[in-house]
Design a protein that fits this description.
Blueprint (H helix, E strand, L loop, with lengths): L2 H26 L5 H22 L11 H28 L2 H8 L2 H12 L6 H18 L12 H22 L5 H23 L7 H14 L2 H12 L4 H4 L5 H13 L5 H37 L1
């Protein structure tokens, strides 16, 4: 199998797994509360990243990082896994899975929006249009199509789901500047983040002994939402000639998720959710075209300069 086919194979596996996690969140929350889910899932994911570091002989990297690096990991660990998943899992506990997933999926648009003040990037008209299109989808989804009355099905849940997208965008922006090994970074993020998770669980929830179904749920979330899929996705990107060849497959995830949500969770998928999701994904796709074009023009200008 050539590298391109390998890249697609890894990407398809990742997409199929990611399309199940929204349903896994909702089912798991029937047996544990949102803090308990995060507590146990983060133990699973932290253990997974430790084993990967051990197998890859990368534990030595942890000794090479400075105090500033560790403080950066504390900040990132606070954002993700702690704050991001606290907000996201709470949103899932309040909203139908189809709605929470759609609103959370606005994170690429949040990145474009937050890059203006944080990265000092200039925003183009097409990017503004992309943001408007995606947020039209947010309104359609969160009001179940009743936009004119502006009546939200659950305003708190919708606010939390959108907030989770903002938190993930912040994490992505600050993480992208960190050039340390990806697995080592994630291990440190989850290790420091677990401290915040443990304190929150002790203060606002309780540590319980899980039954079999609850245990299976947290293990699945910890491995497939927070762990293994990250490694497979990295493999997909590394074995592809360009990231664009496989990254577009991510647009399929929320639509496949609707199938698993319907059959596993038992939710009736609303037309307003599908319509809203189409708006959200269309805005993301438009924004991606802007980014791709800017990158292409930058490379062309760079090549022209070196020609002279």
């Amino acid at each position: 199998m050539d590298k391109l086919r390998q890249g697609y194979a890894y990407a398809i596996i990742t997409v199929l797994i990611w399309s199940t996690v929204a349903a896994a969140f909702k089912v798991s929350l029937r047996y544990v509360d949102f803090l308990q889910l995060l507590f146990y899932a983060s133990i699973v994911s932290s253990s997974f990243f430790f084993v990967v570091l051990l197998i890859q002989n990368k534990l030595i990297l942890l000794k090479t990082y400075s105090r500033k690096d560790y403080l950066h990991s504390v900040l990132l660990g606070f954002l993700n896994p702690f704050l991001y998943y606290v907000v996201l899992f709470k949103a899932y506990s309040l909203l139908p899975a189809q709605e929470a997933q759609t609103l959370n999926y606005t994170w690429p648009i949040m990145i474009a929006f937050l890059s203006i003040p944080i990265l000092k990037q200039k925003i183009q008209f097409k990017s503004v249009l992309a943001i408007i299109i995606s947020f039209a989808g947010v309104l359609i989804t969160s009001t179940q199509g009743d936009i004119l009355r502006f009546s939200f099905t659950n305003l708190t849940g919708a606010s939390l789901a959108l907030s989770s997208a903002i938190i993930w965008a912040l994490f992505w922006i600050y993480n992208i500047k960190d050039k340390r090994d990806e697995v080592a970074k994630l291990f440190l993020n989850f290790t420091f983040g677990f401290t915040f998770i443990l304190i929150s669980s002790l203060l606002f929830s309780k540590i319980i002994i899980l039954d079999v179904i609850g245990l299976l749920g947290v293990v699945y979330v910890g491995l497939f939402e927070m762990g293994i899929t990250f490694m497979i996705w990295l493999k997909a990107l590394k074995t592809s000639k360009t990231t664009a060849q496989v990254s577009h497959l991510i647009y399929v995830v929320p639509f496949l998720s609707m199938i698993t949500i319907h059959f596993i969770v038992g939710e009736r998928i609303l037309f307003s959710t599908i319509l809203g999701l189409i708006f959200v994904v269309s805005g993301i796709a438009l924004q991606q075209l802007v980014v791709t074009r800017e990158g292409f023009l930058h490379r062309k200008a760079h090549d022209k300069m070196h020609t002279y």
